[in-house]
Amino acid sequence: MSAKSIIALILLGLLIIVCIQNVEVIQVDVLFWRFNISKLLLLIITFIIGIFTGILIPSILSKSKAEVKNQQVK
Fold it and tell me: pTM for this structure?
């Protein structure tokens, strides 16, 4: 197992512990909308958005860097 995998498993374990401790329902205000959602669901949604952001931004940046490099070579 690589160090990256071990760190990912540790972070996942910490996420599970935090989620288990936060199961009550809270009120969330987004602009003009107000709705009730459990903290657990809100944490999971935020975590998933963070994962997608962490995957998308580096791939977008690497593509734009490659395009700039190709334009400089021409």
Answer: 0.56
